[in-house]
Write a structure and sequence with these properties.
Blueprint: H1 6-37, H2 39-53, H3 59-80, H4 85-97
Helix pairs in contact: 3-4
Length: about 100
């Protein structure tokens, strides 16, 4: 068995850590370069996954939701304006048109 002095062991450990750090830097740089290169593809895959989880509503569904939200808002406003008849009448007229 060969016996090394302390300075040789320390230099081997230091060289190993520098080599490992260099390899880590190269690997992380290559990974970042691939991510930047394939960014549009990755973004498209993420959007496709979101559409699988939460599909986009049709135009009719969006219109129905908007009308329902507006009706609920008008009803809430009517409930808060019961004390003032002129505002309540105006809101009722708006609700009748909607």
């Amino acid at each position: 068995m060969q016996c090394y002095n302390m300075s040789t062991i320390i230099s081997i450990v230091q060289n190993f850590s520098l080599i490992a750090a260099g390899e880590l830097a190269l690997v992380s740089g290559a990974a970042c370069a691939l991510i930047v290169l394939f960014k549009p593809l990755l973004r498209g895959l993420a959007r496709a996954a979101m559409l699988v989880v939460k599909p986009k509503r049709s135009k009719e569904e969006q219109l129905q939701r908007r009308q329902m939200r507006d009706a609920m808002m008008l009803k809430r406003m009517l409930n808060t304006m019961d004390r003032d008849p002129s505002h309540a009448a105006e809101l009722r007229a708006m609700a009748a048109r909607a």
